[in-house]
Design a protein that fits this description.
By secondary structure, this protein is mostly helical. The chain has 18 helices and no strands. It is elongated and about 85 Å long. Keywords: Nucleus.
Length: about 300
């Protein structure tokens, strides 16, 4: 009969421990890339195993000690199985024709949702993010470690491609516990779709909404690509705003921190033109492409006054 407290019922004698120098270095490199903490480190800490860095177990004796710690820990059986299952995924990786993790999940009757989540975290720790998303965003799962998953997916994005982080968010719809995760997701949203980010900010109470709105303006105008910045500036200036947002917009770009942003003055000017506030446009001075436009507007408004 299967007994998870028996080391060799979990880790078969005929399967070699996979933690050679190469795999140890890979795991440490992944840990360093993840700001010094893997998801398995977070799970171990959350479940009360906080003594030192126990993963990966580098020797047979270290594996035996870790197995004993898990068995003796004051946690649910399913959580114990989850930790053991994660480690066994490393054993699977050693040889494609041996799947000790599947054997373990069958013998232990480990619930499928625990398998899905731990496999997703294993792929996150291996930095195989598209594959990880197939598991951590599964509809049967609760959004555990959602803040950390979003932060990791945003950080790994290149060339402003935040599709993985946004896909995870829209699939899971987590409630964030930290401002860092919220701000990183919102920045990713604003860099991807200006209108979508604005609509998202409107789902928050007024104080938080105002903070997100200012961040929205700042993120859009902070885009580094010159050509993209011009198009996004125009999109920002022509986006329909309500009266509160209109006031926040002008205050932020005239006397607030946003006044020092690149294109702040141009954006405000385009906004006034788009909203037919030509009497206010006359107070602006501009050079380059806006000089002739401003002169034309001033001449038109002065002619109407005469």
């Amino acid at each position: 009969m299967f007994d998870y407290t028996n080391l060799h019922d979990v880790f078969p004698k005929d399967v070699q421990i996979p933690y050679d120098r190469k795999l140890q270095q890979e795991i440490e490199a992944h840990r360093k890339h993840a700001d010094g903490i893997l998801f398995i480190d977070r799970v171990l800490k959350a479940l009360g195993i906080q003594k030192g860095k126990v993963y990966p177990p580098k020797t047979d004796n270290a594996l035996r000690q870790l197995h004993q710690q898990i068995c003796e820990a004051g946690m649910s059986m399913h959580h114990k199985f989850s930790l053991l299952y994660y480690i066994l995924l490393d054993f699977d990786d050693l040889s494609n024709d041996i799947f000790v993790s599947e054997r373990f999940s069958t013998l232990s009757s480990m619930p499928a949702n625990y398998q899905l989540f731990m496999k997703g975290l294993w792929y996150m720790d291996r930095q195989e993010y598209p594959r990880a998303l197939e598991y951590v965003a599964h509809p049967s799962l609760d959004p555990d470690f959602a803040d950390d998953i979003v932060i990791a997916l945003v950080k790994q994005a290149s060339n402003d491609d935040f599709s993985l982080a946004l896909s995870y968010y829209y699939s899971v719809q987590p409630i964030f516990k930290s401002s860092v995760a919220l701000e990183m997701l919102f920045d990713a949203m604003a860099r991807t779709n200006v209108t979508e980010a604005l609509l998202y900010s409107r789902t928050y109470p007024q104080h938080a909404r105002e903070q997100l709105f200012r961040r929205w303006v700042s993120t859009v105008l902070d885009t580094r690509s010159g050509e993209d910045l011009s198009s996004r500036t125009s999109e920002l200036a022509f986006t329909p705003l309500d009266s509160l947002e209109e006031a926040w917009f002008e205050e932020y770009l005239t006397v607030g921190e946003g006044r020092n942003l690149r294109k702040a003055k141009d954006t405000l000017l385009i906004r006034k033109i788009a909203c037919d506030r030509f009497d206010e446009v006359g107070r602006y001075r501009a050079g380059g492409q806006w000089a002739s436009i401003l002169e034309g507007i001033k001449a038109g408004t002065e002619g109407q006054m005469d």
